[in-house]
Amino acid sequence: MYSAIARNKRNTVFIIALFILIIGALGFAADQIWGGGQWGIFVGTLIGASIYALVQYFAAGSQAVMMSGARQIEKRDNPRLYRIVENLSIAEGMPMPKVYIVDDPAPNAFATGRDPQHAVVAATTGLLDMMTDSELEGVMAHEMGHVKNYDIRVTTIVFGLVVAIGLISDILLRMSFFSGGNRNNNNGGGNPIFLVLGIAAMVIAPLVATVVQAAVSRQREYLADATGALTTRHPEALASALHKLGEYGRPMRRQNSTMAHMWISDPTKPGIVDRLFSTHPPIPDRIRRLLDNAAKF
């Protein structure tokens, strides 16, 4: 478990570097198209991306909560959910995270934040209505597993950088269409080869970011399942909760693909493309792993 936490911290640095590399590639493409190879746009994009990554490290968690429409609760607002999270925190010796509820009939839950001291866990009203106490405990133990394993730091930063890459690509593509690639630039810009390659990079970059987002999330779901089962010593309850999520899950009303990897169950409408870029492993596989290893927890 400690090696997994250390690996997650290392991966955080690697992922930030990878995303800055992608953003730098976009800046390079834009520089060749509009900057005439003077490197001003490239350097500016890298500096801007670095500042953005730093801001996201501190702010992405709050941004994810806002995008989900979650509202913070105290114990008196929902004693059942709050007490379960409180008991799990005591059992794990972790700081009590902020607890949120999302008003949505789709059963789901997520965790975010940059570390256990600044963590948030949230559950939908649909999840609270559907799960028994032991199943709800299993789900929240899974989310607390993300906090304990520092998955929240990785997923939160990935969330912020995926948003940034999508935004930069969108701005550059619009500039391409409306400016025609600065064909009249006297500084040498407007090379048709760079224009084609630049536009291709702007289209491909968000797809690459999404694939990285999916790859980051899938293995962490298995690890959080194992951590949750180890905490509660009741893997069957989490397996039963996952079965219900697979059986009765539905798309959430407020969908946002950039934070899809944070939820315990994919909140988007399943389809061929969704499955291709799925941020979650198949639920039957997660249930099988839990039950096959039940005696080890």
UniProtKB/TrEMBL annotation:
Binds 1 zinc ion per subunit. It is a multi-pass membrane protein. InterPro entries: HtpX_protease (IPR050083), Pept_M48_protease_HtpX (IPR022919), Peptidase_M48 (IPR001915). GO terms for molecular function: metalloendopeptidase activity; zinc ion binding. Its main location: membrane. Its cofactor is Zn(2+). Residues 76-291 form the Peptidase M48 domain. Its EC number is 3.4.24.-. Zn(2+) binds at H142, H146, E221. Pfam families: Peptidase_M48. Belongs to the peptidase M48B family. This is Protease HtpX homolog. It comes from Diaminobutyricimonas aerilata.
